[in-house]
Structure formats: structure tokens, C-alpha cells
Design goal:
With 336 residues, this protein is α+β, with helices and mostly antiparallel strands. It folds into two domains: 2-134, no CATH class; 173-331, Histidine kinase-like ATPase, C-terminal domain (Heat Shock Protein 90, 2-Layer Sandwich). It has eight helices and seven strands. The protein has helices spanning 2-21, 26-53, 60-86, 91-172, 174-193, 202-220, 244-256, 298-309, and strands spanning 200-201, 224-229, 238-239, 263-272, 275-283, 315-319, 323-331. It is rod-shaped, with a radius of gyration of 38 Å. The model has no long low-confidence stretch (mean pLDDT 79).
Length: 336
């Protein structure tokens, strides 16, 4: 639409110029203007078609300029007989036509060159936008693939631990082994139903967590107690799936390591401003910890959180009064 307006404006300006400034007959002014503007429009259109099909990788502007000059000269030569026909018998107009021929050619070349430069710049911008869009798509696909990989890494780890526990119970406590197999089946079935979801509610994650704990309680019996304090007002808070389970698993592993006493794991959630705060604590004795340090899952969870929220400060740990505390901050994303 803007191009059409420019063409019409140019046409009416030339008609006004020829009829008012130079004093030619209105019909002659209209015919002259139509032929002139049409030649320029055709020149620009042909040049655009040429550049859209072939543009050299080097000296693009030189190529476009040479094509613009050639087109302008050829089209003026083709339309010149029409100008002479329009002004037949009008010596004043024919003399004006001869005198204005170089100016007409120059104006045609200038407009065509400017149009070709604009076309090249536009094409370059489009190429850059397409490249950026493709890069964004590729980056998004890589990000999703890494998130999926990190999430799937949690499943085999938990599965192997559970299978080892079942194997240990088969001979000494077959009923507990069967109970654990059923609970593990329920947990994996519930997890698979949500495999393709990027977000679940806090309430759904709590259900997963209870399934997981039911398995661990078969394994550890009375030694394990987990106290969960979930704020009822934030049950619909959206979080990444299987986010709390590896944290609780980590707390159980390091809280129970090296002791036969009862261990209490605390999980507390509350809202702080526009964020969900989760704190998980377990007993900690620096002299009774396995050599590998922080345990499986924390580094992977930090990476997941960064990919989802673009922040590195959402998962922190500290030791306070013989307790190992994991603090998780999740920005608000309420379900609509």
C-alpha cells in the first residue's frame, strides 16, 4: 500500500508539473506522466524480479546499479516513440522532450538504483531475521532436549535404588518386597502419565512425593519420618515435575547414612512475595557423610532451574545447627 501511494503521488505531481508549471495540455500531461511513471515502475519491478532470483555474493550494489542503468535506458528508448506520438504536431513539447531526455533517464536510473538498494537491504534484513529465528528454534530444541535428558536422568537412579531394595527384601521379607513392587509400579505409572508435561501443580508433585515416600518407608521402616508442611493456599503453584522428589531422596540418603537411629526429614513450603519457597532439611554429621559430597541430583536440578528460569540463584544449600538445609525458590507461575 505505501508503494502504491508513492506511485500515485509521483504521477499526480508530474501531471501538475507539466500542466501548471510548463503549461502543456492536461491530456498531454496525463499521457506523458503515465508513460514516464509506468516505465519506472516496470524498471523497478523487473529489477526486483532479477535480484530475487539472482544476487551475486560479492559486489551486490554494483550489480544492481548496472542492471538499473541498463533497464532505465532500454525502457526510455522503448517509451520515447510514445512520447513523440503524444506530442505530434506540438513543437514546444517535442523540443521539451528532447531537452528533458537526459534528465528523465537520470531520474529513472536514480529511482531504480534507490529501489534496488532498498530491496538488497530488505533482503539482508530478512536473511538475518530468518537466521535469528532458526537459531532461536534450534536453541529452544536443544534446551528442551537437555531438560528432557536431565529429567530422565532422575528416573533410572531412583529405579535402580528401588530395585536393589526389592532384591534385598525378596529373601528376608517377601511381603514387603511385593508391597514395594506394587508401590514402585504405581509411582512409575503416575510419572509416565506426566512425562510430556513441563509444568505440574505443587499438589500433583506432593502426590508423587507421597508415592515415593511410601516406597522408601517400606525400605527403611520406622527409621524414616518425613514431615511435610504444604501451604494449602499455594497448592496450584506450577513447578517443574519431579523437582522435590530428588531433593527429598538426597535428604534421606545423607540423613540416614551412618546411623541406625530414627531420622526426621522436614519439608516446608510458603509464599514469599511472588515466589514459592521450599526448604528441605535433614540431620547432618560432617564425620558421617559419604565421600561423594552433595549427592546425586543437586547439580542436575540447578541446571534444570537455569534452563527454565534463566537464574542461577534458585537452589542453595547451607549447614545450620547440625542440619543440612536445601532452599529452593520458584518464581510465580499460577495455573490459569
Amino acid at each position: 500500500m505505501p508503494i502504491v501511494l508513492v506511485v500515485l503521488a509521483t504521477l499526480f505531481f508530474q501531471i501538475w508539473l507539466l500542466a501548471t508549471w510548463f503549461g502543456f495540455d492536461l491530456k498531454l500531461a496525463v499521457l506523458d506522466s503515465l508513460a514516464t511513471v509506468s516505465a519506472i515502475v516496470i524498471s523497478v519491478a523487473v529489477l526486483g524480479a532479477v535480484l530475487s532470483r539472482y544476487t551475486p555474493t560479492r559486489d551486490k550494489f554494483l550489480f544492481a546499479g548496472l542492471v538499473a542503468i541498463a533497464l532505465s535506458v532500454v525502457l526510455f528508448q522503448l517509451t520515447y516513440p510514445a512520447f513523440e506520438y503524444y506530442g505530434k504536431g506540438n513543437e514546444v513539447y517535442l523540443e521539451f522532450l528532447r531537452r528533458s531526455a537526459p534528465i528523465r533517464i537520470f531520474i529513472g536510473i536514480a529511482i531504480t538504483v534507490i529501489a534496488s538498494a532498498a530491496f538488497i537491504f530488505y533482503s539482508r534484513i530478512k536473511e538475518l531475521e530468518d537466521a535469528q529465528r532458526q537459531s532461536a528454534v534450534t536453541s529452544s530444541m536443544a534446551r528442551e532436549a537437555e531438560l528432557q535428558k536431565l529429567q530422565l536422568q532422575l528416573q533410572p537412579h531412583f529405579l535402580f535404588n528401588s530395585l536393589n531394595s526389592i532384591n534385598a527384601l525378596i529373601l528376608v521379607q517377601p511381603p514387603k518386597a511385593r508391597e514395594m513392587v506394587q508401590q514402585l509400579s504405581d509411582f512409575l505409572r503416575a510419572t509416565l502419565r506426566r512425562a510430556d508435561e513441563q509444568w505440574i501443580t505443587l499438589a500433583q508433585e506432593a502426590d508423587y512425593l507421597r508415592l515415593y515416600l511410601s516406597i522408601e518407608k517400606v525400605r527403611f521402616g520406622h527409621r524414616l519420618e518425613v514431615q511435610m508442611d504444604l501451604d494449602e493456599q499455594i497448592q496450584m503453584w506450577l513447578i517443574p515435575p519431579l523437582l522435590l522428589q530428588p531433593l527429598v531422596e538426597n535428604a534421606i540418603k545423607f540423613g540416614l547414612y551412618g546411623t541406625t537411629d530414627k531420622v526426621v526429614i522436614n519439608l516446608h513450603t510458603l509464599r514469599e512475595g511472588d515466589s514459592l519457597l521450599v526448604e528441605i532439611s535433614n540431620p547432618f554429621d560432617a564425620d558421617m557423610q559419604p565421600s561423594e559430597g552433595s549427592g546425586f541430583g543437586l547439580s542436575g536440578l540447578k541446571r534444570r532451574l537455569y534452563l527454565l528460569y534463566s537464574r542461577n540463584d534458585l537452589l542453595t544449600t547451607r549447614i545450620e545447627e547440625n542440619k543440612f538445609i536445601v532452599r529452593l525458590i520458584l518464581p510465580e507461575m499460577l495455573e490459569t
